[in-house]
């Protein structure tokens, strides 16, 4: 059984963004490794190392899903010829958003499965388990495609 989910990102004041970073990813599975390395560098810069494991797992799943399910079958899987997937990391004082943009208009779907030995099909369950919330929304205008996002609540840093 397939279950689509669509929800917009909770309201976040764009003027209050304290950090933003993004990278284009080529249509090859090695891009998942590149996305993890980019996430590590960015979280280190933002002094959010303690959130790396959860955020990295979610980034890996979102990028893998974009590469596996959101690209047309004829998309070249070679470096530097096509970078149709983009990872965005946005930080607010108390929130971190990971967003993956891809060219597909199809909604992400969670699969109901009782087969826990399956090697795939649990990515969005992992995203749901590790992120505080997640969803997707279509992109309008010339960009087209969609963004799948995951939100993490951050501990408020105390002033010492």
TrEMBL record:
<dbReference type="InterPro" id="IPR036890">
    <property type="entry name" value="HATPase_C_sf"/>
</dbReference>
<keyword id="KW-0808">Transferase</keyword>
<dbReference type="InterPro" id="IPR003594">
    <property type="entry name" value="HATPase_dom"/>
</dbReference>
<dbReference type="GO" id="GO:0005524">
    <property type="term" value="F:ATP binding"/>
</dbReference>
<protein>
    <submittedName>
        <fullName>ATP-binding protein</fullName>
    </submittedName>
</protein>
<dbReference type="InterPro" id="IPR050267">
    <property type="entry name" value="Anti-sigma-factor_SerPK"/>
</dbReference>
<dbReference type="GO" id="GO:0004674">
    <property type="term" value="F:protein serine/threonine kinase activity"/>
</dbReference>
<keyword id="KW-0547">Nucleotide-binding</keyword>
<keyword id="KW-0067">ATP-binding</keyword>
<keyword id="KW-0723">Serine/threonine-protein kinase</keyword>
<feature type="domain" description="Histidine kinase/HSP90-like ATPase">
    <location>
        <begin position="25"/>
        <end position="136"/>
    </location>
</feature>
<keyword id="KW-0418">Kinase</keyword>
<dbReference type="Pfam" id="PF13581">
    <property type="entry name" value="HATPase_c_2"/>
</dbReference>
């Amino acid at each position: 059984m397939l279950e689509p989910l669509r929800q917009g990102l909770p309201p976040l004041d764009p003027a209050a963004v304290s950090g933003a970073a993004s990278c284009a990813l080529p249509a090859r599975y090695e891009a998942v490794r590149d996305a993890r390395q980019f996430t590590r560098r960015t979280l280190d810069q933002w002094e959010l190392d303690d959130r790396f494991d959860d955020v990295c797992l979610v980034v890996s799943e979102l990028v893998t899903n974009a590469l596996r399910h959101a690209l047309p079958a004829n998309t070249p899987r070679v470096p530097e010829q096509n970078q149709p997937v983009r990872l965005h990391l946005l930080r607010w004082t108390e929130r971190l958003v990971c967003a993956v943009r891809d060219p597909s208009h199809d909604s992400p779907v969670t699969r109901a499965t009782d087969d826990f030995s399956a090697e795939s099909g649990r990515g969005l369950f992992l995203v749901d388990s590790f992120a505080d919330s997640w969803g997707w929304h279509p992109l309008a205008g010339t960009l087209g495609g969609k963004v799948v996002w995951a939100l993490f609540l951050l501990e408020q840093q105390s002033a010492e």
